Please model this.
Amino acid sequence: MEFLEMRDPHMHLPSSLALVLLGAGLIAIGLIYLGLKKPFVEEQVEVRKLELQELVKMLHEAESHAQVRKDGSGAKKPVGPTGIISDGDKYVFIS
Model:
C-alpha cells in the first residue's frame, strides 16, 4: 500500500484550494442572485400601496354587487308538476 503513504505533506493542497475556490464562487453567485437586490424606493412603496388599496376597493365593490344579486334572486321559483325548478335562463334543477 505504497500509494496510501503520505510522502509530501502538501500533496492535498491543490485539491483543497480548488474546493475552497469552488465554495467561494458558489457563495458569490448565491449572493448575487439571491441577496444583492436593490432596496425599494419610498416612491415605489407608495405606488404599490395605492395599487393594493385600489384592488381591495374593487374587490369590496364586487363582493357587495354579488351580495345584492344574491339577495335579489333569493326567492324560490314554483315547482312544476314533474319536480323541475327553473332558475332563470341558465340553470334547471330537477328534484
Observations:
- The first helix runs from residue 13 to 35.
- The mean pLDDT is 76.
- Helices lie at 13-35, 42-72.
